[in-house]
Amino acid sequence: MIYAGTSLALTVANVLEADFDEVWRIMTHLPDGYLRLLESPEGWAALSAVIAAGLGISSVPVNPAIH
To answer: In angstroms, rounded to a whole number, what is the distance separating the alpha carbons of residues 16 and 26?
Structure first.
């Protein structure tokens, strides 16, 4: 989960052109139930929207490639 969270934070920061530390701060303050969203590409897209809202930035969909 830590790897998935870090990967998402890096991806979101890159896509939204946001500061990684701010993205990480928002992610680490989400309710515990949100962690399940790290398990699917759709969850990553939903989390990216939540993070964008927390940053006050228009959301850009994050659709990770699964390898």
So the answer is: 14
Per-position pLDDT tens, the chain of length 67: 788 888 888 988 998 889 999 999 999 999 989 889 888 888 888 988 999 999 998 877 777 666 5
Per the CB < 8 A criterion, the answer to whether 6 and 53 are in contact is no
Cα three-residue angle 6-8-11, rounded to 5 degrees: 110
Question: What does pTM read for this prediction?
Answer: 0.81
Contact 67, 17 (CB under 8 A): no
Residue 32: CB atoms within 10 A of its CB come to 6
Number of Cβ within a 10 Å radius of residue 33: 7
Please state the length of the chain.
Answer: 67
